[in-house]
Amino acid sequence: MTSTRGGSARRAILGRPMHTEALTRLRENITSVFLGNGDAVDRVLACLLARGHLLIEDVPGVGKTVLARTLARSIGGTIARIQCTPDLLPSDVTGITVYERATGEFRFQPGPVFHNIVIADEINRATPRTQSALLEAMAEDTVTVDGETHDLPCPFMVVATQNPYEFEGTYFLPENQLDRFLIRVNLGYPAPPDEARVIQRQPARTDLRTLEPVATVDEVIALQEATDAVTLDQSLIDYIIALATATRNHDDVQIGVSPRGSLALAQAAKATALLAGRAYCIPEDIVSNAVPVCAHRVISRSTMHEGDTLTARRLMQQVLETVPSPA
Questions:
Q1: Rounded distance, CA 181 to CA 261, Å?
Q2: How many whole angstroms separate alpha carbon 81 and alpha carbon 165?
Q3: The CATH number of domain 230-327 is 1.10.8.80
Q4: Whole-prediction pTM value?
Q5: Can you say whether the dihedral through the CA atoms of 159, 165, 171, 174 is positive or negative?
Q6: What fold does the segment set 1-228 form as a domain?
Q7: pLDDT tens track for 101-116
Q8: Topology agreement, domain 1-228 and domain 230-327
Q9: Phi and psi dihedrals of 154, rounded to 5?
Q10: Domain spans of the chain?
Q11: Rg value, the chain, Cα
Q12: What is the DSSP letter of 166?
């Protein structure tokens, strides 16, 4: 059941055991299907708590779609999956206005974006025009079609997967599109023991099909509100601003972290603190999120495009090493 924004479910419950219980259920449900890389699971949960959108990038076959589907099925909201292809149109994402002869009126027919969790599979195989159809939805939680604005459900999260840019048939995500993603995560190859478990259990064919929701929409909204209530000391706010400023002044950076990126880093740090059972942030919450939250917002002068993830991560790591962290 979908909740509307501003509904009765909005409540501050910071400090109650309910948080730990709900997060434990979610983590255990996801790891029952997605085997290995617990850090990636925590990134996914942090992104959900921070009201952000997630971009999972890696080579085919490492579990990108499995992780996205497992998260979606763990929450008792509505789910939609968009298989991105070059012939996908913007209206296939947002919806269209249709004329009904019986009534003589126009009626808006919502697209798949009108769900709590939207899985955009292989997003960089869609054309930039279609990718841009998600911009308003990801930034403002609304969709405008034919001059009429429609609200999206709450919570709303886009989980997009993509292959590396050097793969055939992929397009670069526009810079403003990348900036809408709170976190960009790489899964990597599983450790040999985890890969052995995948071969033995084949969770995508067995466990995923029978996976049941373990958290309601109201619980997710409550967790997001609890994340907002986590304390972020002024010294940590200054640290975030110092990191963002350092990327803008870096000699090798053409485009640095935007104010939206600074806000995203603050929200991710709060979510990480809540996942750790704390009602306050510490410097490590910011340091651990700096690369996954900020690297995809940085474009180097040497490459001048957003596809060079290795260079962007290296530059962000340099900034972390040069900007002193609060004691």
A1: 9
A2: 22
A3: yes
A4: 0.86
A5: positive
A6: Rossmann fold (3.40.50)
A7: 888 888 899 999 999 9
A8: no
A9: -125, 130
A10: 1-228, 230-327
A11: 20
A12: T
